[in-house]
Write a structure and sequence with these properties.
About 70% of the residues lie in helices and about 5% in strands. The chain contains 14 helices and 5 strands. A 5-stranded mixed sheet has the order 2-1-3-4-5. The longest helix is centred in the middle third of the chain and has 35 residues. The chain is elongated, with a radius of gyration of 26 Å.
């Protein structure tokens, strides 16, 4: 099995297309992370409303566009309308003597500009900035789509190529069919996980370079869970790709059996892009095995998942993974030596 896995890894690493596409992905990811970090840390003037009894607290603070207001009511109106990012008002109950009013999220940049950190009151509380949520959704979706489709397609092509050239007859004369399947899955899983870990390292480096430690801390747990979910999700998909490809004997026919799997890979990407702020859709996605690697990390990032939900979702994914391996192995074994016409699913599943 490990010999087959090494063969798969060696073949993959010799592919120029793989090296080039991976390099482009890594460079693009690094550029995106650094750009987003610098955008988040850019310090253009922050528009704020300030009541008369809080004027002394902003005196001498650079980077503020101050709008004087008469009282708290007028300050709240400007914050709610979006004319200012936040309001600074006098507050005798505050240890600092003032408080900050914000709309949906705490104004981190403003708080860092002030000499003291005052209590913050949110008029419309929101756990995560919408823009950051969208960026996280795009990141998880693209990484899952790219890695699963590329390595899944590689497994399918490898199976058909061996069957078409009859190399598979030599392979299974030396090793059992299920060991051959396991080797393909293990080899490509190692490569896929290596790519995921490289992307995670790039995200950490990019956010560290741009001094976005708060965002890095917020992404730490979601990225770790994404790696775990991706591992089992990829094994599930890899087994099914190999099984589906074994049902045909020509490269031209691969699409006829792997298209449904390709659709399953694309679905989480589009769902998380269009519904990244919809808790119902994300909740369903986080428990469906094919979309859980994207849906659950996204919910963890947004702070919507309870501590036990990732564990339940992972248990469902692992159970489905085991079932897929057993079914895929049967299809693979029954279809591998059948040359010529496409093998029907009922024949592939037969004992």
């Amino acid at each position: 099995m490990w010999l087959v896995a090494e063969r798969e890894i060696g073949s993959k690493l010799r592919s120029k297309a793989f090296v080039i596409s991976t390099a482009i992905l890594l460079v693009g990811a690094l550029a995106l992370v650094i750009w987003a970090g610098f955008q988040a840390s850019s310090s253009s003037g922050t528009p704020v409303a300030v009541t008369a009894d809080a004027t002394q607290y902003v005196a001498g603070v650079d980077g503020l566009e101050v709008t004087d207001v008469a009282d708290r009511a007028e300050a709240e109106a400007l914050v709610s309308s979006g004319d200012v990012d936040a309001a600074i008002i006098g507050d005798t109950s505050s240890p600092t003597g003032f408080a900050v009013l914000a709309d949906t999220s705490a104004p981190t940049q403003l708080l860092l500009q002030l000499a003291q950190l005052p209590p913050v009151e949110l008029l419309s509380p929101d756990d995560v900035n919408a823009a950051l949520g969208y960026i996280a959704a795009v990141g998880f979706g693209i990484v899952f789509l790219f890695a699963a489709s590329m390595f899944g397609g590689t497994i399918a092509q490898s199976v058909v190529e061996e069957k078409q050239t009859r190399v598979v007859e030599l392979l299974i004369s030396a090793i059992p069919v299920r060991v051959l399947l396991a080797g393909k899955v293990i080899g490509n899983t190692i490569l896929a996980m290596a790519q995921i870990l490289l992307l995670a390292a790039i995200a950490i480096v990019g956010l560290t370079v741009t001094d976005q430690t708060a965002l890095l801390q917020g992404l730490g747990a979601p990225i770790a869970w994404f790696a775990v979910f991706f591992l089992f999700g990829f094994i599930l998909l890899a087994s099914l790709f190999a099984a589906a490809a074994s049902m045909v004997s020509r490269m031209e026919d691969i699409g006829s059996t792997t298209t449904p799997l390709t659709m399953l890979i694309m679905a989480p990407y589009f769902l998380v892009i269009f519904f990244n702020d919809n808790p119902v859709v994300l909740g369903v996605m986080s428990y469906v095995p094919f979309s859980a690697p994207v849906g659950m990390p996204m919910r963890i990032f947004l702070g919507e998942a309870l501590w036990w939900e990732p564990l339940v979702s992972l248990a469902i994914l692992v159970s489905t993974c085991v079932a897929a391996i057993l079914i895929g192995a049967r299809i693979y074994e029954n279809s591998l030596l059948r040359m010529g016409a496409r093998v029907k699913l009922s024949e592939a599943l037969a004992r």
